[in-house]
Amino acid sequence: MLTRRSNWRSLLLVLLLGCGTLISAQQGRESFNYGFVSPNTRDDLKIEEAIRGMNSPEESRLLKEAVKLACVVRSRIRAVRALGSWSDGAEHSVMLRVKTDEAAIRYLLSRMGGASHQKSVLYFHPQPAGTATIYILRPRRHVRNLVAVANILERAGIGYRTLVPTGRATLIYIVDLKHELHAKVMTVAKRLRARVGSQAGNGGFIGDDALPQAKIAFEKEINNYEKSHPNLPSSCR
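Above: the chain sequence. Below: its structure as tokens.
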């Protein structure tokens, strides 16, 4: 991810995707886990450039790689195009959703982050006693302008977000790592007339502010998982 991604450890990532009003509380391999990763390696993209990057070859390759990893964890992976943006930058991204456990989602993202030369990736695993919260906002009106949505979130004090247009609207996922964004999320929901769902869980970044150390962090996650899960199948063809 971008150099400025180092600030993300104090806040959240917002992602937009079609969703229901409420996320079900599920455990173990029945839990829907969420992962966020980008193919972008620049640190100076403008939001308009990032929007164009959502249709780029590297974005398409990352989507395909995410789906191919389904055979490794023996669980279907859904991956969608996304736009990550913050106060002074943006990047094209991918959000993936998969029913698996926390160790597996960390492993999947570490493989994707390492292969894409990223500094960090973000995950969320549902857990009733977790220290993070995921919010899902579904606007009741059709909001298609990604720049306008990003500006609304910025004015509400949500400094980091990733947006995904669906066929009918732009919907919002917010991963709040410190349980501190509820009031701001409700402000955005009111502004967009959005339905809101939320769920507690574990979440965090994997990687490092420096690329060499990020690579080491990814490799550690990968090695630990593969040692405890010998004879993993290969990626889907």
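The two ends are 27 Å apart (CA to CA).
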